[in-house]
Design goal:
By secondary structure, the chain is α/β, with parallel strands linked by helices. 47% of the residues lie in helices and 21% in strands. Strand 1, helix 4 and strand 2 form a beta-alpha-beta unit.
């Protein structure tokens, strides 16, 4: 990922959770729960949350793997990792989460290390999507599943128009009010470059995943890519 994107996420760290709640009317928590469920975490598992942000998906994984399991939360933003660490200490103080500053294109983990993985709103920001999927495939154990949640461009033209209107007239003004306008204005152009669901499925098959499904949610304005390694 670029230094510019890292700087963006470092700057938004203090208002990240508040903004996500406002901008999705709290729905992002439901979508993240769906991603957690699709990654199939079980008690005692070792799980990975890529682009962990302020840590809410990693915390959800930790609750499911329990005290006998392990969770690694990975992000390239030290400010977001610090926010996640403080949040975990207050919400889930058991030492089940290791916070790791790293690049998803070059993960500091062994082959076949994880029983499951998640990524929330990260794939759209990586500079080499196939390479990040290949790294994910490498570190998952055979039989493991991963779920990747992100924005999606709806196929319906009216919904696509609404999505653009919402980003320009709701998201950017709210972000402007909180002093992080430029940090959120990038979402719409990043979405224009982001592969749609069927293209994500093809990329996942190309790097070696055996079973791949893309689930459109929120009227196709969000999506979850679920991949399995055999």
């Amino acid at each position: 990922m670029t230094h510019e994107i890292r700087a963006i996420f470092d700057r938004i760290a203090p208002v990240y959770d508040q903004l996500n709640d406002w901008l999705s009317l709290g729905q992002h928590r439901i979508w993240k729960e769906m991603a957690i469920k699709w990654s199939n975490p079980k008690p005692g598992d070792t799980c990975l949350d890529l682009c962990c942000g302020s840590g809410d998906i990693a915390l959800g994984l930790a609750r499911r793997v329990g005290t006998t399991g392990h969770v690694y939360g990975v992000d390239f933003s030290p400010n977001l990792l610090e926010t996640a660490k403080r949040r975990a200490q207050s919400q889930y103080p058991q030492p089940a989460i290791a916070w790791v500053e790293a690049d998803v294109l070059n993960l500091p983990f062994d082959n076949n290390q994880f029983d499951g993985a998640t990524m929330g709103y990260g794939l759209r920001n990586v500079k080499d999507i196939p390479r990040s999927l290949k790294e994910l495939h490498r570190v998952l154990k055979p039989g493991a599943k991963a779920a990747i949640l992100d924005f999606h461009r709806p196929s319906n033209p009216q919904l696509r128009t609404f999505q653009q209107w919402y980003l320009e007239n709701i998201v950017v003004p709210v972000a402007t009010h909180l002093g992080v306008k430029e940090e959120y204005a990038y979402i719409s152009p990043s979405l224009d470059r982001f592969p749609i669901g069927s293209e994500q499925v093809e990329l996942a098959y190309q790097v070696g995943f055996a079973v791949v499904t893309h689930y459109p949610i929120a009227n196709g304005m969000m999506g979850v890519l679920v991949v399995s390694k055999f």
